[in-house]
């Protein structure tokens, strides 16, 4: 009897070899749904992390071009228009601070789980790629396929931690934008608001990996280090 390969392995309530077409359709549909769920989840999470970056960059743009935005205010008094424009910046900044706080409270533990599972997943794939690469019986197509899978799993957390690192960078750049603006030419009340805003902006916005750290590029390097250690440990068995 010839055993025909299927896209995956799972228990089905019928003979898979006798019903090869039905089994293939079932596997393909299940794999498509699973892959789509993973992709949509990653798109959602990246969107949640990217949102503060766009808001922070917009605030930098407003601060650097303060006079242009001030003129768009429908207030004749220059002091009031300056004050109104900067109040809007402060409110946006406070909203982003609250957003990051809510993200950490709700999704901080999930990011910790993702940190651990990403390390383990990459480690298992790295071990498999090493074994496949040194196995003469494996075709080049299988080696390329496994290596591509490994690279995809490496790129995924890289985007997460790169975007989270950008949030910290953009929050620091608000101070630079303030220094590049002519805030010292404003009224005393606006100067006071700028001072208070600067003190608050000195505390960087950051996404947490649960209670154990923050999401930065250094965290991604830690993921790769842990994955390498796991892989070397698995190769000893």
Structure description:
Helix content is 76%, strand content 0%. The protein is built from six helices and no strands. Helix 1 (20-64) runs antiparallel to helix 3, helix 3 packs parallel to helix 5 and helix 4 (140-180) packs antiparallel against helix 6. The protein is elongated and about 85 Å long.
| Number of helices, counting only DSSP H or I runs of 4 residues or more | 6
Low-confidence region ranges = none
What is the number of strand segments? 0
The rounded distance between the terminal residues' Cα atoms is 35 Å
- Silhouette: elongated
Helical proportion, percent range? over 70%
Q: In percent terms, what proportion of residues is strand? A: under 5%
Computed over alpha carbons, the radius of gyration is 26 Å
Query: What does the main sheet amount to?
Result: none
Quaternary state of the chains: single chain
Order of helices and strands: HHHHHH
Can you give the mean pLDDT? Answer: 84
**Helix-and-strand structural type:** mainly alpha
Highlighted features:
237 residues, single chain
Report a brief summary of the structure:
With 237 residues, the chain is mainly α. Helices cover 76% and strands 0% of the residues. It is elongated and about 85 Å long.
Layout of strands and helices, then pairs:
Layout: H1 20-64, H2 66-71, H3 78-133, H4 140-180, H5 188-201, H6 217-235
Helix pairs in contact: 1-3, 1-4, 3-4, 3-5, 3-6, 4-6
